[in-house]
Amino acid sequence: MAKKPSSSFVCQSCGSVYAKWAGRCDGCGEWNSLVEETLPDSVPGGLSKRASKRGRQIEFVSLDGASENIPRHISCNKEFDRVCGGGLVPGSAVLIGGDPGIGKSTLLTQILAALSRQSGVRCAYISGEEAVDQVRLRAKRLGLKGDDFELASATSVRDISSTLDQVDGPRVVVIDSIQTMFVDSLDSAPGTVSQVRASSHELINLAKARGFCLLLVGHVTKEGVIAGPKVLEHMVDTVLTFEGERGHHFRILRAVKNRFGPTDEIGVFEMSEQGLEEVANPSALFLAERRGNVSGAAVFAGLEGSRPVLVEIQALVSPSQQANPRRAVVGWDSGRLAMILAVLEARCGLVLAGNEVYLNVAGGLRISEPAADMAVAAALISAAMDVPVPEETVVFGEIGLSGEVRAVSQAESRMKEAAKLGFLRAIIPPSRSKKNCKSSTQGLETKTIEHLQDLVALFAARSVDKARG
Ligand code: TYD
Ligand code: MG
Asked: What is the spatial distance between Cα 93 and Cα 70, in angstroms, rounded to a whole number?
């Protein structure tokens, strides 16, 4: 039998393993992503030929046994604590991903300082990217005192685990970033799939064994996914992403996976000279620059996790001479825009084929809720007909392919937030059950739209009114 090769080629994008180098990964289609890596037996995923020893018997227990309820570490940073599901869980691993320069190190520095100050939790910050002086400089800029948390610059996982492997060690540890860490038993460079996998494996096991909370910073690739194998996201308990547009000051922390709390919860921060500040009322911030009574703008009453968030959706429709007019979207799904344009054309007779269409979610927020469909449609119709959406109105509702408007979840809390911010009217979908008909509109004047045609008709009527003066 041929000897097993000591190295193999691993795709840095999806983690597929090949015996030979190739220009393109068959697994994910990425070009130039295969890197030679050695896979010794100790690596998780490495094919080991361990002797087949009989294992220990495991013991089964019933569901309703007493479970230990360990208190969470609360940082008193409300936005951060909410996204984590109510504080950091001891013994858990949290991965925080985000573009370079978005503020991951700043956020974690502030969280550690808050944790040690507010809750007296012993914290450590291990930086593999920056020298101690650079971290100090940042801390100084953030107005932190010297004894807030412990600081070190290291990249060797062996050194880090020997240091942390003690009973009374720090309770919260930040590793900035996992791509700079290396395990010396592997030959491959830091940042490669096997290094990231082995380093995280070792650090996470130690965190579980010693009961400290591990916060790992992860880089993202140009496509916006956390670099390294998907397996890293499976290994940790919580995955948070820190996002924001470069030109904006808003930063959004989003839970995409959380074993100890709800996902899709967001925390909103504003980057200032003194670091990241919590934004308690994001709707007010996203609507701050809104100008009333212009065509092509609709306010969407959205929901991010448990929290209602109002944002403005802007559309621009302009005639084009090109065979394939441009469609550009910021902050929303372009496929979903194509669908709404098709429904407007096929079901409502509003033809936008010869026009360029631009759609923008103001403030740098990314919306993924289908409930935004009707707000997008309202902005598009308003832009196409050059008629403003009725004043002080919020819009929400999902649109189906036949043009029918569908109910969305938590209509009441959306309207409640709108009323709180001084909106007077709401364009809404029919409610899901007849029983719910009487559900409170929170003092808003509501207009129920059952089919997208009704929305087009509403704007057409306003257009006639406008022409009459
Ligand atoms: P940083 O936390 O280093 O980003 P990351 O770790 O995600 O790469 O943040 C870097 C940016 O944040 C940098 O462009 C400067 C800006 N910043 C402020 O605007 N105010 C501040 O108080 C700090 C510390 C940083
Ligand atoms: Mg950083």
From this structure: 15
Q: How far apart are CA 444 and CA 99, in angstroms?
A: 40
Whether residue 221 has pLDDT greater than 80? no
What's the DSSP call for residue 437? G
Residues 6+ apart with CB under 8 A from 54: none
What is the band of 215 on the pLDDT scale with cuts at 50, 70, 90? very high
Taking CA atoms only, the protein residue closest to ligand 1 atom 14 is 101
Bigger pLDDT: 455 vs 291: 455
Q: Which CATH class is domain 285-468?
A: alpha beta
278-312 pLDDT, tens digit per residue, is 998 888 888 888 887 889 999 999 998 878 899 99
The two domains 78-280 and 285-468 share their CATH topology (first three levels equal): no
Mean pLDDT of 398-419: 93
Best mutation site among 271, 272, 273 for ligand 1, i.e. most ligand atoms within 8 A of its Cβ?
271
**Of 262 and 458, more confident:** 458
Residue 102 Cα to ligand 1 midpoint, Å, equals: 6
- Residue 88: strand pairing partners: 73
Residue 438 CA to residue 326 CA, distance in Å, equals 44
Between CA 440 and CA 39 the distance in angstroms is 62
- The DSSP bridge partners found for residue 266 are 254
**332/158 Cα distance (integer angstroms):** 44
Q: Which atom of ligand 1 is closest in space to residue 100's alpha carbon?
A: 8
Confidence (pLDDT) at 224 = 57
Query: pLDDT by residue (tens digit) across 346-364?
Result: 999 998 888 999 999 988 7
Q: Give the ligand with the smallest distance to the CA of 127.
A: 2
What pLDDT does residue 46 have?
47
Q: Which residues pair with 125 in a beta bridge?
A: 151, 174
- The CATH class of 78-280 is alpha beta
pTM of the model: 0.80
**Ligand 2 centroid to residue 243 C-alpha, Å:** 14
Q: Which amino acid is at 26?
A: D
| Stretch 135-157: mean pLDDT | 89
Listed by start position, the domains of the chain span: 7-38, 78-280, 285-468
Which residue reads 């948390």 in tokens?
A: 149
Residues 6+ apart with CB under 8 A from 373: 336, 340, 397, 398, 399
